[in-house]
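seq/struct pair 1
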Amino acid sequence: MTGGNESCTAGPTSMSYLTCLTYILEEWTGVKDIGDYLSYAFYVLWLLFPLVVVFVLPGVIVILFYVSILWLHIYKRKNEIKEAYSHDVWIGAREMLATIWDGHGRIWHGYELHGVENIPQGPGLVVFYHGATPVDYIYFTARLHIMQKRRCSVVADHFVFRVPG
């Protein structure tokens, strides 16, 4: 760089944006060869990225559980008077939660539901395996509600009813 107040393109040779940013950071912090420190920081970030993903995904699921519960409590308080005069005020809450959980399933896991046309119109039994958390059931019911406006009841292990909230 030619001076403290001049831009990176003011000199006789043009430089890339990252080189310019490195020079600006060196001037601002007073540290020489800051590019070496930045490359080390990027390496550590790249090394620890899988751990960040491992802890972020369950955190997002737990936060969505609590946001869903909070949304239902607020919705219940808001519609207590309407409930006495209409047959089902929970339609809006179901639509909102189904949309939120379906979006989460599609974005984080690429969740898709195939073969819905094979589920009978009357009662039916859907058997599936779930892992450590019952999120796949939530994704299934949300997608089924969006596609066919049907509700699904669950027969589950005691663990599902011990999930906080």
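seq/struct pair 2
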Amino acid sequence: RALQMSGAGGPPHVKLTVEWDTSTKERLFGSIQEEVVQDAESVWRQQQAHGQQHSCTLDECFQLYTKEEQLAPDDAWRCPHCKVPQQGTVKLSLWTLPDILIIHLKRFRQVAEQRHKLTTLVRFPLRGLDMAPHVAQRGQPGGQLLGRWAPWQPPLRLPPGCPRDHLYDLYAVCNHHGSMQGGHYTAFCCNALDGRWYSYDDSRVEGVREAEVSTRSAYILFYQRRHA
């Protein structure tokens, strides 16, 4: 009856709780082992599909990080002009970029009182990471500002001859192996003298191919501005 009430096809997830009368339960189930109900094959397939980890690019991570979000009605702000609460939007932008760019990937997620490790493969470039699309457009060469800014907080204008170098090259990766209960850290580093990548695992150091640097264990990425 619960499935029929939810319409055609049923809801994506159903949890039924049965409260037994003690005498009825003892009459139906002779032991605790008999209480276990085997899940249908469709349930197992859904669990397998949900457990499969997808992949994404580092560029997609930055796009989500700087994506404009609609504020909830409870977070409405009072407009200084019309004096009426307005449901606004919020957006994070990168204002300036450092010579050394350290990117910390979110590998742990908290659900209720439990924390889980995320093993999604984040594909990141070893050379030529272009951060220009993710930097706030603060002005044009002629000095005209893009967008509308509050008069008491004008955006910063860079000197006319200041280069806008947004290309970065990777030089190290910190990896985390294991789970919340126990883990181990390793690193991939690019030797500045020979340009080759090496794997560092405690006292063990060995060469690795560039194709082996991007893994599901990548935790912290270290980039350097190309022309710094």
